[in-house]
Design brief:
The protein is mainly alpha-helical. Helix content is 64%, strand content 1%. The longest helix is centred in the first third of the chain and has 31 residues. The protein is globular and about 80 Å long.
Length: 327
Amino acid sequence: MQENKAPAKTQAKPAALKKSKWTKDDTELSILALPTFVWYILFCYLPIFGIILAFKDYTITPGANFLTSLLNSKWVLFDNFKYFFGLRDFGQILRNTILYNLVFIVLDIVLPVGLAIIISNIYSKWKSKTYQTLMFMPHFMSWVVVSYFVYAFLVTDKGLLNSVIAAFGGEKVPWYSTPGAWPFIIVIMHIWKTIGYKMVVYLASITGIDNSLYEAAVLDGATKFQQARYITIPSLKPIIIMMFILAVGGIFSSDFGLFYQVSRGANQPLTPMVATLDVKIYQMLTSGTIGLGKTTAASLFQAVVGCITILTANAIVRKYDRASALI
């Protein structure tokens, strides 16, 4: 006779997932995030509606508010862009913006990384903290304040720099009438103000590197230079690439305070050397004769091209090193 086999036990079905409940932590975190959410809505998403200004000849309707005037304005499609691209100095300001940013991108990687490596090798903690503080302080200074210090140094009659030149028997230089000197002044001021912040970013990454790597390198007889070359810099590769992608995304933008405030208005004869897209857009906006639509078209061009640039840079990085890409 065949033995009756016991029926196979069926596997128990997984318990149904309980519906998540709103907890006290969710409420607290939502309240904390609310100011940021409101800020982004008001200053990042709501203004997007104004993009249609770039495609209209904005005129004020008597007795109407801004929104009504905007909707009643005539559509001109790409005429505002044609005006901006047809400006006599468009090529000049585009050249200045790109070339300055290319120089800034290179220097903002080489110098801060080098300084971060040097400071990380200082054995005295108080000296290291002192150097970091002194280099980081300019980051918090407004360009308006900095421009007055620069003026005190460069003014022709009683400027500190000209006083030193005169003391050594040289002739005073009218710096604000010497366009050729301003590319160097702009670059020096940019480095002075930003190098401390970027250095701290890289220094924070260096402190996260495993010390056992350096200990093994010392046992193998590696010098400080070799440690930096084969351990520190490769470990900084992800943060360097991230900073590079962000910098490339802003290649069609510029630090308005640096180019406008420090040069005291970017007026002639300095205009050919210090005029950038941001400065030009501001001058168009405050001229009183150029329509708001033309100014918006210039800003939209700058934003769109910047977005395309950062996406392109990210795509190139992702192709060769997917882990280091931002998106």
